[in-house]
Automatic annotation (TrEMBL), chains A, B:
The keyword Nucleotide-binding does not apply. This is Carboxypeptidase. Residues 5-119 form the LD-carboxypeptidase N-terminal domain. Keywords: Carboxypeptidase, Hydrolase, Protease, Serine protease. The keyword ATP-binding does not apply. Signal peptide: none annotated. Residues 166-270 form the LD-carboxypeptidase C-terminal domain. Belongs to the peptidase S66 family. It comes from Aurantiacibacter marinus. InterPro entries: Carboxypeptidase_A_C_sf, Class_I_gatase-like, LdcA_N, Peptidase_S66_N, Peptidase_S66C, S66_fam. PANTHER family: MURAMOYLTETRAPEPTIDE CARBOXYPEPTIDASE, MUREIN TETRAPEPTIDE CARBOXYPEPTIDASE.
Length: 274, 274
């Protein structure tokens, strides 16, 4: 059975050569997957893959297309929060039976979908992650997942509902019209290219907004820029500190991050499957 | 009449030589001002001017001292959110009749004080701003203000209640136990050393949290790092975009920022005085 996967970019554009590599891998190894890169992926409008209207239209076109099984986000970067509200408001029946997969800035869309109970939001590698060392395997995991083949999910998943976010993305969602209810959820967070003082500040913010969560798991905090002074504690110390201060359970590490190992985490209730 | 001003650092430490310069200026030009730099200002504990307990104790000692008229924040940086909740909880009667002055990360304390109705929070230069080009004048403005001499405040103040914040600091306060009610307020924001995409993201967040505000004024957005692509619009475009999207009035520019021109903005209801 064919799985039809449409790729759009709600934030930054995807480079054509990366799309080509993803497509070549899919053709060679996943004949049952049909990938369609929406032309919007390759547009450039300042920071964004096309202006707000264009990105919104591409997302709605694919989400509302009954012939599309999954919407896969091509790139993160930044820009999803500009269109996420209008996107979920414009989604019709066909949008409700789809999987939506991505992470980082695209987590804004996943969060908004999850809030509205539309489709199946899934944290996992972007098409553009093909560029990374080991990126082929990241793409393979996604294609296995989307085409219903056995695939390793995040190892720490249990019976509790789960959501996974980039830390900054979650912090910006918190308290907004796009923020899902994460009561009783295990919330996984990861970060890239932020100073540890910024990670600390973001943890202050999210722990204040996650009262009632089952707990927090910390993914990788990578590419931390060097500051003019050492912060004095590690990312895990920071997570423990704020969890303790806000009476949220710190539940250990999660296998997510801005790298090719970035695990697949379906939002909501899961059981670990292989 | 003597004005007794205590300087503490809720975030980063202050360099001794900068304190010495501020003190020398005060002695030479403001004989009626008595400055006391709390020894905590010069401590170093990783990123911070002493650990949380030490910074909290210094802030409470000065705030609760009936012989202190004003608490002036020596430095921003980062760290105030770790102690602000305990600080306002530990403030007693003597804390209520004081002025608290600073900005940037110290805005976290100002916000928490304003929320609790404790004392007079005032956005304005830090003691450490003496280091800037024109920093002497920034320090003079503060010493004039704190000692009750005529001084120019932010030119745009009118009869509406006002608050002024660093954009990131306000974004992190939003929705937390430290966030003041800014309904009907003119809210001024400034930013430094953030990419324009980050400014855009922060505006998404704060406009969602400032529903009911009278409007937003934009201070300076300075030292924007160069990105791998131009953002495509200016900081003022960003402010207008999000204000329009969230039906908050955009009220033009404000004379605040991470520079020596950074205007004094008393929180609450003001009239422009000279």
């Amino acid at each position: 059975m064919t799985t039809r996967i449409a790729i759009v970019c709600p934030g930054k554009p995807l480079r054509q050569e990366r799309a080509d590599k993803v497509l070549a891998l899919a053709v060679a190894e996943f004949p049952q997957a049909e990938l369609a890169f929406h032309p919007q992926c390759f547009l450039e409008s300042g920071h964004f893959a096309g202006d707000d209207e264009t990105r919104l239209a591409a997302l709605l076109e694919t989400a509302n297309d009954p012939d599309v099984d999954a919407v896969w986000f091509g790139m993160g970067g930044y820009g999803a929060c500009r269109i996420a509200g209008d996107a979920v408001a414009g989604m019709r029946e066909a949008a409700r039976s789809k999987t939506y997969l991505g992470y980082s800035d695209a987590g804004t869309i996943l969060g908004a979908l999850y809030r509205e109970g539309i489709g199946k939001p899934v944290h996992g590698p972007l098409a553009g992650d093909i560029k990374r060392e080991g990126g082929d395997d990241a793409v393979r995991r996604v294609l296995r997942y989307l085409s219903g083949k056995p695939v390793e999910l995040e190892a720490g998943l249990d019976d509790r509902p789960t959501a996974a976010f980039n830390l900054m993305t979650l912090a910006m969602l918190a308290g907004t019209d796009l923020m899902p209810d994460l009561t009783d959820h295990v919330v996984m967070v990861e970060e890239v290219a932020e100073h540890l003082y910024a990670v600390d500040r973001l943890f202050f913010h999210i722990t204040q907004h996650l009262k009632g969560a089952a707990g927090i798991r910390l993914g990788r905090v990578s590419a931390v820029p060097e500051n003019d002074r050492p912060f004095g504690s590690t990312a895990e110390d920071i997570a423990r500190y704020w969890c303790e201060k806000s009476a949220i359970r710190y539940l250990g590490r999660a296998d997510i991050g801005h790298d090719s190992q970035n695990a697949i985490v379906p939002f909501g209730t899961n059981r670990k499957t292989t």
